[in-house]
Amino acid sequence: MVKYLIKRVLWMIPMLIGISLISFFVMHLAPGDITNNEASFNPKASEESRQKLREMYNLDKPVIVQYGLWLKRMGTLDFGNSFATHQKPVFWEKTDEDGNITKGMIQQALPITLMINILGLIITLVLAIPLGIIAAQKYGQWQDKSITIFNFVGFSIPSFWLSLLLMYWLGVVNNWFPISGLHSINYESMDTWAKVKDTFSHLFMPVIIPSVTGLASITLFVKNGMLDVLFQDYITTARSKGLTEHKVVYTHALRNALLPLITIIGLSIPGLIGGSVIAETIFAIPGMGKLFYDAVLMRDFPVIMGILTIGSALTLIGNLLADVAYAWADPRVRRGVARG
Amino acid sequence: MMKNINQTTHQQNVFKKALANPLAMAGFIIIVTVFLLAMFAPLISPYDPDDINVKAILLGPTWNHWMGTDGLGRDVLSRMLHGGRISLLVGLVAVGISTAIGILLGALSGYYRGWVDTVIMRLVDVMLSIPSFFLILAVIAFLTPSIINIMIVIGLTSWMGVTRLVRAEFLSLSEREFVLASRTLGAKDARLIFTHLLPNSLTPIIVSAVLGVAGAVLMESGLSFLGLGVQAPQASWGNILTDGKEYIQFAWWLSLFPGLAILVTVLGYNLLGEGLRDALDPRSGSAQ
Questions:
Q1: H helices of chain A, where?
Q2: Which residue in B131, B258, B270 is closest to A311 by CB distance?
Q3: I want to staple A270 with a disulfide (CB 3.0 to 4.6 A). Which of A75, A242, B118, B131 is the partner?
C-alpha cells in the first residue's frame, strides 16, 4: 500500500509538468499579450514603454525560455505576481521589506470555491443515494420512470439558465435570498450568529444550483450500481437466508453498489472546478471561477497559469484520494494492492 | 459478403431497438423538429432577426410577436430561429472535430499499441486532468471570439472520451477471429483498420457523438452567455439569454424562451444518445 502510494504521488510530477506545458504553449500560441491591455488604459503609452513592460515580464524572451523561468519558480511554489492587479501574489501571501503581508489571490479564492463545492456535493449525495435506491427497487415502475425523466432534465438543463430563473424567483420577486456576493455590506458590524446566517443565505443559491444539476448523474449511477448488485448470487443467498428485504438492500447491496461512487466523485472534480466559473460569475462570488474569468478578460498570464496548475493539481489529488479510498473500502483491491 | 450482411443487420437492429424506446423516439422527434426549424429559419421567421424597431421595445408575447421583443425592439422568435442555426452548427462541427481526432488517435493507440499507445494515453490523462472549461475560456479569450474559433476550441478539448472508446474497441476487436483470419491471409494495416476494425466500432462512436453534441451545445451557450462566445449582433441562444439577464426584472420572456430552447435541444440529444446506448448494451434486453 505504501509503495503504491509513493508511486502514485511521484507519478503526479510528470503529469503536472505535462499539464503546465500544454497550458503554457496553448496560451502563447494566441496573439496579443498583457502590454496591449495595460497600454490601452494609458493612451500615451509608447511602443518604447510597452517594450519595457515586455522585458519586465520576460515576454520578449522565446516561449521556451519563459516556460523554463516559470517552471523554475514553480519548483519553489512561487507562481509569481499578477500583471493586472498591482503585483498581488498569485498563489500565497508574501511579506515585503516593511513587513506588510499581501494575501495571495488563490489563497483567498480557493477556500470559497472548495466550501461551495463540498457543501454542494454533500447535498447531492444526501438526495441522490435514496433516489437511486428507489429507482432500482421500483425498476420499471412509475417511481423509476419519474426519476429517469427528472434525471434527463437535470442532465440537460443549462445551469446558468436555472441560476437566472432562481435568482429572479427567490431573489428578485420574493426577496428570500440575496442575489450577489458572499456577505452583506454591514457584515463587519454583525455578531457571530448573524454572520453565519448572512453567509449561509448568500451561499444558498450558488450551492443549490450545482447540486441540482449534479444530482442527475449521481442518481443514475447509484441506480445502475444497485441494479448490478441486486442480481448477484450473494444477494440471492442473503434473501434465501430469510433476511428482511430492508436488511438485504441496506446492508448487503448498498455497500457494494456505492463503491464505484468513490471513483465517480473523484472524476467529477475538474467539472466542478470548471463549472464554478458560471455560477460564481452570475452570483458575484469571489472564488476561483470568478478570479479566473476576470484574469482571462485581463489576459493576466501568471494568474491564468496559476489557476490552471492549481486546478489540475486538485484534480490529480482528488483522483489519488478516490483511488486510495476505493482501495481502503474494497478488500479485493486492498489485497491486490498489497500483493502488487 | 456474409460478414457485411450480418454487420448491417446488427446496426439496423440497434437503431430499431432504440426507436422502439419511447424516450429515444421522443429525442429523435425533438432533434428533427429543431433541425427543420433552424434549416427553414429564413423562410418561417416573421421578421428580420436584426431589424431594430424603436417603437416596439420590450413588448411581451403577443400575436404579432409570439415570443415578445428585446431591448432593441427585435423580434425574439426570429432571433431564436436564427440563433438555433448557430447553436446546432457549433454543436455538430465541434463534435465532428473531436470525433475525427478521437478516431485517429484511438485507432493509432489501439492498433499499434506499444509506445504509440503509451504516449497517446498519457496525453489523454493529462488533458483529462485540466478542468476543460478553464482551458476553453483561456484559449477563447486570447483568440478573437468567433463562431469558427469556438467550434475548433470545443472540438480540440473534448476528444479524449472518443479516443479511449475507439482504443478499447480496437483492442477487443483485434483479438476476434475474423480479424485474426484476415491478418493471417496477409491483409495490410490499412485494410484491417478501414474494412474490419473501424466499421465494427461505428455504433458506439455514433452514440458518443450524439451525447457529445448535447455537451457542445451546452458549452457554446455557456460561453456565449459569458460574452466569450457568439458576438452580437449575431444571435445565439446563449447571448439572447445574456440580454435576458439585463432585463430580467421587466422582461421574463427574454430569459425564458432561449433557456427552454437549449434545454429541449440538449434533452433531445441526451434522450436519443442514451436510447442508442441502451439498445447497444446486450444486458439491457434481458433486464427488462
A1: 2-29, 34-41, 47-56, 63-75, 105-137, 142-156, 159-166, 192-230, 233-240, 245-247, 254-267, 269-282, 288-298, 301-329, 331-339
A2: B131
A3: B131
> Measured between alpha carbons, how far is A277 from A163 in angstroms, rounded to an integer?
13
Tell me the per-residue pLDDT of B115-173, one tens digit each, with 9 for 90 and over: 989 999 989 988 888 888 888 888 877 777 788 888 998 999 899 999 999 999 888 88
Cβ B179 vs Cβ B242: under 8 Å? no
Using the Cβ of A13 and the Cβ atoms of chain B, whether some distance falls under 8 Å is answered with no
The number of C-beta contacts closer than 8 angstroms across A and B is 134
What number is the ipTM of this complex?
0.82
Determine the Cα–Cα distance for residues A76 and A304; give it in Å rounded to an integer: 18
End-to-end CA gap in chain A? 9
Helices of type H across chain B: 2-20, 22-39, 41-44, 76-112, 114-129, 132-142, 147-156, 160-174, 177-184, 189-191, 198-225, 237-246, 253-280, 282-287
CA distance B59 to B250: 10
What is the C-alpha separation between B100 and B103, in angstroms, rounded?
5
Query: Residue B186: what residue type?
Result: G
d(CA B92, CA B89): 5
Question: Which residues are paired to A81 by β-bridges?
Answer: A89
DSSP assignment of A158-220 equals -HHHHHHHHIIIIIIIS--S--SSSS-TTGGGS-HHHHHHHHHHHHHHHHHHHHHHHHHHHHH
Residues A172/A179, Cβ–Cβ less than 8 Å:
yes
**If DSSP codes are grouped into helix, strand and coil, which group holds residue B75?**
strand
Give B153's contacts in chain A (Cβ within 8 Å): none
- Those of residues 54-73 in A touching chain B at CB distance below 8 A are none
Contact with chain B for residue A328, Cβ under 8 A: no
Spatial CA neighbour of A317 closest among A173, A110, A179, A132: A110
Which cell goes with A61?
Answer: 524572451
What is the arithmetic mean of pLDDT over A11-21?
Answer: 84
- Per the document, the length of chain B is 288
Amino acid identity of residue B5, one-letter, is I
Nearest to B274 by CA among A156, A106, A279, A80: A156
Residue B138 in contact with residue A26, Cβ under 8 Å?
Answer: yes
Of the candidates B217, B219, B214, the residue with the CA atom closest to the CA atom of residue B273: B214
- Give residue-wise pLDDT tens across range B191-231: 888 888 888 888 889 889 999 999 999 988 888 888 888 88
Distance, in Å, from the CA atom of B149 to the CA atom of B170, rounded to the nearest integer, reads 32
Search chain A and give the residue with CA nearest B269: A156
B142 at interface of A, judged by CB pairs closer than 8 A = yes
